[in-house]
Amino acid sequence: MKRRKLSASLLSIAVALGIFAPFRSAYGAKTFVYCSEGSPNTFNPELATDSTSLNATNAVFDKLVRFQPGTTTIIPGLAESWQISKDGLSYTFKLRKNVKFHTTANFIPSRNFNADDLVFSINRQRLKEHPYHDVGKATYESFDSMGLGKLIKDVVKVDDYTVRFILSEPSSPFLADLTMEFACVLSAEYGDQLMKKKTPEKIDIEPVGTGAFTFVRYDKDQMIRYKANADYWDGKPKIDNLVFSITTDASVRYQRLKAGECHLIAEPSPSDIDSMKKEANIKLMELAGLNVAYLAFNVEKKPFDNILVRQAINYALNRKSYIDAIYLGHAKLAKNPLPPGIWSYDQKISDYDYNPEKAKELLKKAGFPDGLSMEIWTLPVSRVYNPNGKKMGEMMQADLQKVGIKVKLVTYDWPTYIQKTRDGEHQTMMMGWIADNGDPDNFLDDLLSCDAVGAGANRARWCYQPYNELVRKAQRISNKAERTKLYEQAQVIFKEQAPWVTLAHAIFYRAMSKRVTGYSMDLFCRDYFNKVDLN
Amino acid sequence: MFGVTVVSFSLIRMVPGDPVLLLLGERGASPEVYRSVQQSLGLDKPILVQYGIFLRQALKGDLGESIASRRPVWQEFKDRFPATVELGMTSMLMAILLGIPIGILAAVKRNSIFDYSFITASLIGYSMPLFWWGLILILFFSVLLGWTPVSGRIGIEYDIVPRTGFLLIDVWLAGDGWVAFKSAASHLILPSLALGTIPLAVISRMTRSSLLEVLGEDYIRTAQAKGLSRSRVIGIHALRNAMVPILTVIGLMFGTIITGAILTETIFSWPGIGKWVVNSVTARDYPVIQGGILLIAIAVVAINLLVDVLYAVVNPRMRDLL
What we know:
The complex is a heterodimer. By secondary structure, chain A is an alpha+beta fold. In chain A, about 30% of the residues lie in helices and about 20% in strands. Chain A is globular and about 75 Å long.
């Protein structure tokens, strides 16, 4: 009897507490909740290399130039206009006036954005002697790996609203480089104030920018809160508050979307896509991303120094079946190293078709009538461009067996994989690339030039002079039509020489509540909330 | 602790993988850029020098800076540790408050239907993969029934500035009161249930077997013969003597809680140290791994010390041993 009374009391207490009351999220009006996939490492895009951090900082900062949403067309940002000198060595930008920096709990700006802020932001990364260069033990991987330290000879303030970049050599991708996040504009005044207060490291933790949203607070691994910038130069956002709710598991993000806890989710799992299409309250958007997945041959190792062997393997792999099995149909077959969304993509190139007989013929010609043995290093992590390297490796192994090639599959964990492939320890390996700036140079030079072998990004270790000369020449001229011709020639050489097997260009998705309007997908997989609204 | 520093420092460096290259990812960099980044992270020095620097600074309370965030490891740990403690304590409390009574009942009703059901249920609870169990709980209670939130620590509409890091306390300090407390508590239900399932199974089984052993002792028969009530015999005479192995298991379960926290924190987006340390292993964030493992080891030792003290409280014969 006593026991029954006790349990009844406990239950009553629980009910009274309402702890088990049905949970319904009740956000404030116009608070938009984005369920992101991870925690940012920094709130300064100059220091960030991972997409999670870059996405978190996009809400706060602007750059001189930007892309028209969903395209690779460069349009004005904080620069209203620009001129490039005939020799390609000088870029003069006219800056937008009346652009306000954010007012935060720690900072009230006394002036608008001007040339001093742009010079401060670039020189922090460029000059070792800059007072902010080493603040927060910062390193500038994006700026340095693009070679901008050497390329930018000087940044000159011509007047309060005019800045000139002087380059050490012509570089046509330079304007496109300025669309990347590291070219964001920080507040020099905020920097000065923090330096005087002896807390300069806060510039990377409590950001102040000119962007559509003001940073409010970051609750570690949990939430990032932003408030709409009512004075935003490109129009006040339609939402009042923006929250990044960090939810690392893709299945849980989906459940939260279904439960109404998120309005938009990042990186839905490919296995959930079909289910999402059937949900009445969920809207799915898709876009062919600017990415490529490939299998690279290490041409410094036999027998992959033999062009016939490389071509044979291209014919032997049934790549269409990988699109169906690995990407569940959510990808396009790749024939070029460039994805179709990037200008100068050569539609006319003939791809290697799936032809095991032709493969055997080429192997015989190459001196391997009885086949050969080789290793394929498989991607150990799921990436946008390749969600399942292990399974793809197994399918390749089966395909190659049919032409007499015995394959050993090898893998390492991601950090080890990056290091060993950078050092050229592999025979063949899987990798991919996601566009940085929409310029063909970002693929054709950064991944396949002779310099890129030393830098480690050219995993095929392929240094072929006729190709190299074309992409280097294209880097130095500004005429788009001429650059296109050179890149098309380069793609023909690439196809013939076959340092890679090009695999796929992945389609990526965003899933959101049907209440969301105004959201556009970005080719670089970033999320922008300037124009979103909730019905 | 010295041994812990040696093991954590050396083991992670024996695993291939370069944190500098990880920062660069698929992107390449010239050897000059690589060397510059390596130098700024202090990774260009010989291993023994790096260890010496780490030890010297650790003795001063400085565990270095995270390679990923460039912030002090101690600060990063402090920001996340309360969340793990809150989740861990709630899970253990649930496991103890449910496990001991259930174990007592199973011992008292030995060989009954209740006992057999309990044995089966505890075996299932112990064997269930945590990740799967967590997702099932979410699917059932959050999505289908809508009774509990899916993940996170508190509803997004409550903007609570962290002061202690314990949200159940911070909501009162922020002045948001009862409504926010309810939200924080409701967010704790499923993660605690998921994380506490294995400790609940183990504690209840240990309670049952320990109590059964004690109930067979002569002094229990004497107490019954003296005419003492059943609840007094079990609650005072039997349970107190059965508590030593139960306490031992509770102490050991704290270790399970910490390892279980890694998965639980991932599923429920709980911002604790478990996920933080695991992510840092993938990222080869050496300072976080070294510092994080050292701090966790200190916490586990402290808890087991507390358990040893509790032995003496429970069993006066053990006070002399202490």
